[in-house]
Amino acid sequence: LMTGNNDANKPAAERKYDPDKPNAERLATIAKRLVKYVKECDSTRPVTAALAFPELSNLTGYAEALDVVGYNYKEHLYKEDLIKYSNSVIYGSENGPSLEAWLAVRDQDSIAAQFIWTGIDYLGEARGWPIRAAQAGFLDLAGFKKSSYFYRQSLWSEEPMVSLYSMKKEDYEHHHHGRWNGPPHWNWKTGEQLKVVCYTNCEEVELFLNDQPLGIKKLREGQGHLTWDIDFEEGTLKAITKGQDGELYSSELTTTSEPDKLTMKVDSSELIANGQDIDHVEMQIIDRHGLPVYLADHLISLSIEGPGEILGLENGDAKDLQPYSSLERKAYHGKLLAYIRSKPESGKITLIAEAEGLEPAKVEIISK
Questions:
Q1: Average pLDDT of the segment spanning 90-110
Q2: pLDDT tens digits, residue range 178-203?
Q3: Three-state SS sequence of the chain
């Protein structure tokens, strides 16, 4: 931290620091030593650091010791600092998910990248019991994609895409941001006033409800997404767009019937019989038409046969406090994930999932 008096002529960054704290100029000395040690081990790669206060780090020489300078949540400094520190390579080492934060990178070629806190939800930094995890990710604790994942895809990807979501209008007004953007389902009350949100990187999208057109919306610069105000009607909501390749792309939400059965799929149908290899098994609750039931939350019980063991279950719900070692857990957004580990013996592993009122599911994995 910066030493010195309360001289009003000092730069603002210096005056914010308590003079009784350690001298921030030591950071530059320490950084140079650490960079030296790193390059003694590997001279091929640049050294960087994530600077929470680059205003001060630039003044003390700390930033100058780095090959690549990381700015944490300081997008507003980019334009000026690219001029002031023209020899620096600057990127966003920790950033929020807002559209403005992304545009600050996209629209300035000299900013190398951004790293958003964070890609996936993680245990800890929870905001009030019984929440057990930070929910900042674009993937939940089970690795399932949130709507915000597709929002980022619409900003970053060059592949044509379109993705639909719906929510109550009041939820949109109070909670719409880069991390939570509404659920992908079309199961509401008749006549309920909804905000339909569409993420796309295409120029325009036309929306249909039960094949009736609801209007075309054009994606304006800096807008980030499209919306329609709609009263709920059971059926199928569909968005259609045309990519620059001339092909049509679509996304749809369909009202589902009652949950009917469980399905299971594995990352791999084979494991290595070494007692260490791990497989992911995803369970999904579907209706009689085979559609995923987003609102299903049945308690699912698992059993296993053969040379394998269930390490744990995760549903992605940050409020679910069921122990990982339990062999049963509620579905969340209609899904549940099981982690299966091989044993040292080879053979066939059979995993069975059951839930009251649903047709059970079974999957086989060969361990060899």
A1: 94
A2: 666 689 999 999 999 999 999 999 99
A3: CCCCCCCCCCCHHHHCCCCCCCCCCHHHHHHHHHHHHHHHHCCCCCCEEEECCHHHHHHHCCHHHCCEEEEECCHHHHHHHHHHCCCCCEEEEEECCCHHHHHHHHCCCCEEEEEECCCECEEECCCCCCCCEECCCCECCCCCECHHHHHHHHHHCCCCCEEEEEEEHHHHHHHCCCCCCCCCCCCCCCCCEEEEEEEECCCEEEEEECCEEEEEEECCCCCCCEEEEEECCCCEEEEEEECCCCCEEEEEEECCCCEEEEEEEECCCEECCCCCCEEEEEEEEEECCCCECCCCCCEEEEEEECCEEEEEEECCCCCCCCCCCCCEEECECCEEEEEEEECCCCEEEEEEEECCCCECEEEEEEEC
